[in-house]
Amino acid sequence: MTDECVICLKHRGEGPLTGQLIARVDEFWVYHARTDDEGRSPLGWLFIESDRHAPYIWDLGEDESANLGRLRTRLAQALRQEFDAEVVITLVIGMGVAHFHEHLIPRMRGASADLPWHQSEEALSKAMSAEVAALAGRLRNALELEG
């Protein structure tokens, strides 16, 4: 077993983490959430991950921080339009894996008011890989990127 960062491994196509690659933009990778044991994924749950191994948000440089802000905003707009989401929750927890990554989770209109914000992914439809890949293409188009 290695002590190497699981996100660094993921960027090389290795290790336990997986997920549909949406795009590489500036110094960041954008991935869709990985699938569960049944091959389903909560459709629309994205991650932005720093290309270089920067453990925490304060380890990002000024240019990276500015690029992250623009990318986050563009992705949130694309998710909101794609899903007609009420809001797009963005969060950086920084406790599980010491490699900067940010979650973007659309909070769907009509989600029960009893559903806590931190469980918003439970209101997302569960999709198979073909539907996730199709979403990835639409998001790349929204970001005006090539496949």
Strand proportion: 15-25%
Largest sheet: 5 strands, antiparallel
What is the CATH architecture term?
2-Layer Sandwich
SS elements, strand count = 7
Low-confidence stretches: none
**Which structural class do you get from the secondary structure elements?**
alpha+beta
Radius of gyration: 15 Å
Report mean pLDDT, rounded to a whole number: 92
Counting H and I runs of at least 4 residues, what is the number of helices?
3
CATH-level-4 superfamily name: HIT-like
The largest beta-sheet arranges its strands as 1-2-4-6-5
Give the distance, in angstroms, between the N- and C-terminal Cα atoms: 34 Å
Q: What shape does the CA trace take? A: globular
CATH topology: HIT family, subunit A
Count of domains? 1
The top level CATH class name:
Alpha Beta
Structure characterization notes:
The protein has helices at residues 6-11, 62-83, 129-142; strands spanning 21-25, 28-32, 41-42, 46-50, 85-91, 101-108, 126-127. With 147 residues, it is an alpha+beta fold. The chain has a single domain, classed as HIT-like (HIT family, subunit A, 2-Layer Sandwich). The chain has a 5-stranded antiparallel sheet. Strands 3-7 form a two-stranded antiparallel sheet. The termini are far apart.
Attribute tags:
single chain, 147 residues, alpha+beta, HIT family, subunit A, 5-stranded antiparallel β-sheet, two-stranded antiparallel sheet
